[in-house]
Specification:
Two copies of one chain form a homodimer. In chain A, 19% of the residues lie in helices and 35% in strands. Chain A is α+β, with helices and mostly antiparallel strands. Chain A has a single domain, classed as Roll (2,3-Dihydroxybiphenyl 1,2-Dioxygenase, domain 1), CATH 3.10.180.10. In chain A, strands 1, 2, 3, 4, 5, 6, 7, 8 and 9 form a nine-stranded mixed β-sheet that branches. In chain A, strand 4 and strand 5 form a beta hairpin. The model of chain A has no long low-confidence stretch (mean pLDDT 95). Chains A, B: GO terms for molecular function: metal ion binding; methylmalonyl-CoA epimerase activity.
Protein backbone atom coordinates (compact mmCIF):
# COMPACT_ATOMS: atom_id res chain seq x y z
CA UNK A 1 0.00 0.00 0.00
CA UNK A 2 2.84 2.39 0.84
CA UNK A 3 5.28 3.45 -1.86
CA UNK A 4 8.20 5.79 -1.27
CA UNK A 5 9.29 7.49 1.91
CA UNK A 6 8.49 11.04 0.82
CA UNK A 7 10.22 12.79 3.71
CA UNK A 8 11.22 12.68 7.35
CA UNK A 9 10.19 15.78 9.27
CA UNK A 10 12.33 17.27 12.03
CA UNK A 11 11.00 20.07 14.23
CA UNK A 12 13.55 22.77 15.03
CA UNK A 13 13.30 25.85 17.24
CA UNK A 14 15.40 28.02 14.87
CA UNK A 15 15.07 27.29 11.16
CA UNK A 16 17.83 29.67 10.05
CA UNK A 17 20.33 28.06 12.42
CA UNK A 18 19.26 24.56 11.32
CA UNK A 19 19.59 25.48 7.62
CA UNK A 20 23.07 26.83 8.26
CA UNK A 21 24.10 23.65 10.09
CA UNK A 22 22.70 21.30 7.43
CA UNK A 23 24.38 23.35 4.69
CA UNK A 24 27.76 23.95 6.25
CA UNK A 25 28.39 20.96 8.54
CA UNK A 26 26.59 18.27 6.55
CA UNK A 27 27.15 19.80 3.10
CA UNK A 28 23.48 19.29 2.23
CA UNK A 29 21.36 20.99 -0.44
CA UNK A 30 18.60 23.01 1.24
CA UNK A 31 15.54 24.65 -0.36
CA UNK A 32 14.24 28.17 0.27
CA UNK A 33 11.87 28.50 3.28
CA UNK A 34 8.17 28.08 2.50
CA UNK A 35 5.51 29.43 4.88
CA UNK A 36 2.45 27.18 5.30
CA UNK A 37 0.15 29.25 7.55
CA UNK A 38 -2.69 26.69 7.34
CA UNK A 39 -0.35 24.07 8.86
CA UNK A 40 1.27 26.54 11.27
CA UNK A 41 4.80 25.87 10.05
CA UNK A 42 7.58 27.24 7.90
CA UNK A 43 9.32 24.41 6.04
CA UNK A 44 12.61 23.86 4.32
CA UNK A 45 13.51 20.69 2.43
CA UNK A 46 16.94 19.12 2.65
CA UNK A 47 17.49 17.05 -0.48
CA UNK A 48 19.26 13.69 -0.33
CA UNK A 49 19.87 11.25 -3.18
CA UNK A 50 16.76 9.15 -2.52
CA UNK A 51 14.48 11.19 -0.24
CA UNK A 52 14.12 14.44 1.70
CA UNK A 53 14.31 15.77 5.23
CA UNK A 54 11.77 18.46 6.07
CA UNK A 55 12.85 20.99 8.70
CA UNK A 56 9.83 22.53 10.45
CA UNK A 57 9.71 25.77 12.45
CA UNK A 58 6.51 26.96 14.18
CA UNK A 59 4.56 29.71 12.38
CA UNK A 60 1.80 31.68 14.06
CA UNK A 61 -0.14 31.22 17.28
CA UNK A 62 -1.74 27.87 16.51
CA UNK A 63 1.26 25.97 15.23
CA UNK A 64 0.78 22.20 15.20
CA UNK A 65 4.39 21.75 16.33
CA UNK A 66 4.39 24.24 19.23
CA UNK A 67 3.47 21.55 21.77
CA UNK A 68 6.17 19.23 20.43
CA UNK A 69 8.82 21.94 20.86
CA UNK A 70 7.59 22.70 24.39
CA UNK A 71 8.24 19.05 25.25
CA UNK A 72 11.43 18.91 23.14
CA UNK A 73 12.97 22.41 23.31
CA UNK A 74 16.06 21.41 21.29
CA UNK A 75 13.84 20.04 18.51
CA UNK A 76 13.55 16.43 17.39
CA UNK A 77 12.14 13.92 14.93
CA UNK A 78 8.49 14.80 14.33
CA UNK A 79 6.96 12.54 11.66
CA UNK A 80 7.58 10.33 8.66
CA UNK A 81 5.67 10.76 5.40
CA UNK A 82 4.86 7.83 3.10
CA UNK A 83 3.47 8.14 -0.41
CA UNK A 84 0.23 6.44 -1.42
CA UNK A 85 -1.43 6.50 -4.83
CA UNK A 86 -5.01 6.74 -3.48
CA UNK A 87 -5.24 8.51 -0.14
CA UNK A 88 -8.96 7.85 0.40
CA UNK A 89 -8.55 4.11 -0.24
CA UNK A 90 -5.52 4.06 2.09
CA UNK A 91 -7.47 5.93 4.78
CA UNK A 92 -10.41 3.57 4.57
CA UNK A 93 -8.16 0.51 4.70
CA UNK A 94 -6.34 1.87 7.76
CA UNK A 95 -9.54 2.83 9.54
CA UNK A 96 -10.81 -0.69 8.88
CA UNK A 97 -7.60 -2.00 10.51
CA UNK A 98 -8.32 0.10 13.61
CA UNK A 99 -5.97 3.05 12.99
CA UNK A 100 -7.17 6.54 13.86
CA UNK A 101 -6.91 9.43 11.43
CA UNK A 102 -6.20 12.82 13.00
CA UNK A 103 -8.45 15.88 12.57
CA UNK A 104 -11.75 15.49 10.76
CA UNK A 105 -10.48 12.52 8.77
CA UNK A 106 -10.41 14.37 5.47
CA UNK A 107 -7.20 15.12 3.57
CA UNK A 108 -5.73 18.63 3.58
CA UNK A 109 -3.35 20.07 1.02
CA UNK A 110 0.29 19.69 2.13
CA UNK A 111 3.62 21.34 1.34
CA UNK A 112 3.83 19.77 -2.13
CA UNK A 113 0.28 20.71 -3.14
CA UNK A 114 -0.91 17.11 -2.67
CA UNK A 115 -3.59 15.76 -0.31
CA UNK A 116 -2.19 14.62 3.05
CA UNK A 117 -3.50 12.91 6.19
CA UNK A 118 -1.95 12.13 9.58
CA UNK A 119 -2.38 8.89 11.55
CA UNK A 120 -2.50 8.76 15.33
CA UNK A 121 0.97 7.99 16.78
CA UNK A 122 -0.57 5.79 19.49
CA UNK A 123 -1.59 3.37 16.72
CA UNK A 124 1.96 3.18 15.31
CA UNK A 125 4.18 2.77 18.37
CA UNK A 126 4.69 6.46 19.07
CA UNK A 127 5.50 7.51 15.49
CA UNK A 128 3.37 10.15 13.79
CA UNK A 129 2.74 9.01 10.19
CA UNK A 130 1.75 11.31 7.34
CA UNK A 131 0.30 9.89 4.13
CA UNK A 132 0.69 11.94 0.96
CA UNK A 133 -1.12 11.15 -2.26
CA UNK A 134 1.34 11.16 -5.15
CA UNK A 135 -0.12 10.05 -8.47
CA UNK B 1 29.00 14.91 1.86
CA UNK B 2 25.85 12.90 2.64
CA UNK B 3 24.41 10.60 0.02
CA UNK B 4 21.27 8.51 0.53
CA UNK B 5 19.04 8.27 3.55
CA UNK B 6 19.86 4.67 4.47
CA UNK B 7 17.11 4.23 7.04
CA UNK B 8 14.93 5.84 9.68
CA UNK B 9 14.98 3.98 12.99
CA UNK B 10 11.92 3.69 15.20
CA UNK B 11 12.19 2.25 18.72
CA UNK B 12 9.31 -0.02 19.68
CA UNK B 13 8.53 -1.80 22.95
CA UNK B 14 7.21 -4.95 21.21
CA UNK B 15 8.84 -5.89 17.92
CA UNK B 16 6.44 -8.73 17.09
CA UNK B 17 3.42 -6.44 17.50
CA UNK B 18 5.09 -3.73 15.42
CA UNK B 19 5.97 -6.19 12.63
CA UNK B 20 2.38 -7.39 12.58
CA UNK B 21 1.06 -3.83 12.34
CA UNK B 22 3.46 -2.78 9.59
CA UNK B 23 2.67 -5.96 7.63
CA UNK B 24 -1.09 -6.08 8.04
CA UNK B 25 -2.22 -2.45 8.42
CA UNK B 26 0.38 -0.78 6.21
CA UNK B 27 0.90 -3.68 3.80
CA UNK B 28 4.68 -3.31 4.11
CA UNK B 29 7.44 -5.82 3.36
CA UNK B 30 9.28 -6.67 6.59
CA UNK B 31 12.57 -8.60 7.02
CA UNK B 32 13.28 -11.36 9.53
CA UNK B 33 14.43 -10.16 12.99
CA UNK B 34 18.19 -9.80 13.43
CA UNK B 35 19.76 -9.75 16.91
CA UNK B 36 22.65 -7.30 17.33
CA UNK B 37 23.87 -7.98 20.88
CA UNK B 38 26.81 -5.55 20.59
CA UNK B 39 24.32 -2.73 19.88
CA UNK B 40 21.77 -4.02 22.43
CA UNK B 41 18.94 -4.26 19.90
CA UNK B 42 16.97 -6.64 17.75
CA UNK B 43 16.21 -5.07 14.37
CA UNK B 44 13.76 -5.60 11.57
CA UNK B 45 13.85 -3.67 8.31
CA UNK B 46 10.68 -2.43 6.63
CA UNK B 47 11.42 -2.00 2.93
CA UNK B 48 9.98 0.92 0.96
CA UNK B 49 10.57 1.81 -2.67
CA UNK B 50 13.42 4.24 -1.97
CA UNK B 51 14.62 3.60 1.59
CA UNK B 52 14.01 1.57 4.76
CA UNK B 53 12.51 1.91 8.20
CA UNK B 54 14.38 0.06 10.95
CA UNK B 55 12.27 -1.14 13.87
CA UNK B 56 14.36 -1.51 17.04
CA UNK B 57 13.53 -3.51 20.17
CA UNK B 58 15.83 -3.57 23.22
CA UNK B 59 18.05 -6.65 23.60
CA UNK B 60 19.90 -7.47 26.82
CA UNK B 61 20.65 -5.48 29.94
CA UNK B 62 22.68 -2.68 28.38
CA UNK B 63 20.46 -1.78 25.46
CA UNK B 64 21.23 1.61 23.95
CA UNK B 65 17.50 2.22 23.46
CA UNK B 66 16.31 1.26 26.95
CA UNK B 67 16.53 4.86 28.19
CA UNK B 68 14.66 6.11 25.15
CA UNK B 69 11.80 3.66 25.79
CA UNK B 70 11.68 4.62 29.47
CA UNK B 71 11.08 8.21 28.36
CA UNK B 72 8.82 7.14 25.46
CA UNK B 73 7.04 3.96 26.60
CA UNK B 74 4.92 3.74 23.43
CA UNK B 75 8.04 3.94 21.28
CA UNK B 76 9.02 6.70 18.87
CA UNK B 77 11.39 7.98 16.22
CA UNK B 78 14.92 7.22 17.35
CA UNK B 79 17.46 8.20 14.67
CA UNK B 80 18.09 8.81 10.99
CA UNK B 81 20.96 7.18 9.12
CA UNK B 82 22.75 8.85 6.20
CA UNK B 83 25.22 7.15 3.89
CA UNK B 84 28.73 8.50 3.43
CA UNK B 85 31.43 7.11 1.17
CA UNK B 86 34.29 7.76 3.63
CA UNK B 87 33.25 7.66 7.27
CA UNK B 88 36.59 8.79 8.70
CA UNK B 89 36.73 11.82 6.39
CA UNK B 90 33.10 12.63 7.27
CA UNK B 91 33.84 12.29 10.99
CA UNK B 92 36.87 14.55 10.80
CA UNK B 93 34.97 17.17 8.80
CA UNK B 94 32.11 17.14 11.30
CA UNK B 95 34.43 17.31 14.30
CA UNK B 96 36.11 20.28 12.65
CA UNK B 97 32.68 21.91 12.34
CA UNK B 98 32.12 21.45 16.08
CA UNK B 99 29.89 18.35 16.04
CA UNK B 100 30.42 15.71 18.70
CA UNK B 101 30.79 12.02 17.86
CA UNK B 102 29.30 9.62 20.41
CA UNK B 103 31.29 6.87 22.16
CA UNK B 104 35.04 6.71 21.60
CA UNK B 105 34.78 8.39 18.21
CA UNK B 106 35.67 5.27 16.26
CA UNK B 107 33.27 3.50 13.90
CA UNK B 108 31.60 0.24 14.93
CA UNK B 109 30.11 -2.35 12.61
CA UNK B 110 26.35 -1.81 12.12
CA UNK B 111 23.39 -3.92 11.08
CA UNK B 112 24.49 -4.06 7.43
CA UNK B 113 28.09 -5.03 8.23
CA UNK B 114 29.35 -1.52 7.44
CA UNK B 115 31.16 0.95 9.72
CA UNK B 116 28.80 3.32 11.54
CA UNK B 117 29.10 6.35 13.84
CA UNK B 118 26.55 8.39 15.80
CA UNK B 119 26.54 12.19 16.17
CA UNK B 120 25.36 13.97 19.30
CA UNK B 121 21.69 15.00 18.97
CA UNK B 122 22.37 18.29 20.78
CA UNK B 123 24.48 19.33 17.79
CA UNK B 124 21.66 18.59 15.32
CA UNK B 125 18.56 20.11 16.92
CA UNK B 126 17.55 17.07 18.94
CA UNK B 127 17.93 14.51 16.14
CA UNK B 128 20.29 11.57 16.61
CA UNK B 129 22.21 11.06 13.34
CA UNK B 130 23.93 7.84 12.32
CA UNK B 131 26.49 7.83 9.52
CA UNK B 132 27.04 4.58 7.65
CA UNK B 133 29.89 4.04 5.23
CA UNK B 134 28.57 2.57 1.99
CA UNK B 135 31.17 2.24 -0.75
Amino acid sequence: MLGRINHIALAVPDLAAAVERYRSSLGATVSEPQALPEHGVTVVFVQFDNSKVELLEPLGEKSTIAGFLTKNPDGGMHHICYEVTDILAARDHLKGAGARVLGDGNPKIGAHGNPVLFLHPKDFFGTLIELEEVK
